[in-house]
Amino acid sequence: MNSRTDELHRAGATTADIQAHYDIGKDFYALWLDPGLTYSCALWDGITGAPGSTDVLMRAQRAKLRHHLGQAGITADSRLLDIGCGWGSLLRTATEETGVRQAVGLTLSADQHAHVRSLGLPGVEVRVEDWRDHEPDDVYTGIVSIGAFEHFTHPAMSRDERIGAYRDFFARCAGWLPPLGRLSLQTIALTDHAGHDDSVPDFFAREIFPGSALPRLSEIATACEPYFAITALREDGADYARTVRAWSTRLFRAREQAQLLVGPDIYRRYRTYLRASEMVFMRQASTLYRLTLRRWPVRPGLAGTSGRQALPE
Q: Angle between the 237-253 and 264-282 helix axes, to the nearest 10 degrees?
């Protein structure tokens, strides 16, 4: 790999980019997220009521967390890796509801790292660490990554360069799992008819998520194929429209407190971002995918094994 390709494969949101967004302050996010501080699309199957209600939003977020733990095959005896662990809602659900006793969470946000540590979750280790630098002590039973995949590439990267970066991610995840181990992945993505700038206007890239670019489903499928089979796929863009509508409603209700915490400019920026995001999902320029991926027992390339060779164990 030449130096340019290596630089591009490392591109995407830097630690500084992530902290510029997520380290505005936990108290600000607590005004409009659910009590678990879950900052990703909820799962609304069978859940009715006003989305802006704390109880309704909390139930939808818990449904999402349980979905991913189940898809990753996580039980009490599991060893879990959470890539992009946020403020720890999945780790907390895994330990308190599923009984997991060994889990590692990765984040690039100092604020999130401090918060997860403050929860005192037994058996949980949280690290300020890029997945590219992760070196586990042992294999994981299952891996969950919710809302981090969007930050793995940069808008300047070509399609082939994006696929190469995504393939690096899937290769590492495969190496951290046993044969047939599962990765549960959730990501915003561009739809096929959207241009790469249609659903992420300059405002988003400049003011909200610097250094990030959305994938396409075809790029994910191409990148993961040497390492994983996609065993389940949900397209839940409508769920994200409902989620950001709930966040926007809650932020508007708390506008006075929000402006005291972060100032009127940041408040207006986030209201604009949330309202624009809802429109993007409603017009289907972007969508939300939840994928279940199962690691191949062997890797492509070895004759006599249906074209697959063993992954390192």
A: 150
Residue 302 and residue 237: Cα distance in Å, rounded? 39
Q: 171-228 pLDDT, tens per residue?
A: 999 999 999 999 999 999 988 765 544 444 455 555 566 677 889 999 999 999 999 9
Which three-class secondary structure state does DSSP give residue 185? strand
Phi/psi for 295 (5° steps) reads -65, 135
Task: Note whether 200 and 228 are within 8 A (CB).
Answer: no
CB 165 within 8 A of CB 224: no
Q: Which two tokens stand for residue 29?
A: 């996010």
Report the Cα 164 to chain-centroid distance in Å. 19
User: Is residue 310 helix, strand or coil?
Assistant: strand
Token pair 């989305």 in the structure block, residue = 51
CA distance 127 to 134: 9
Report residue 117: phi and psi, to 5°.
-60, -35
3-state helix, strand, coil in the chain (%, to 5): 45, 20, 40
pTM over 0.85: yes
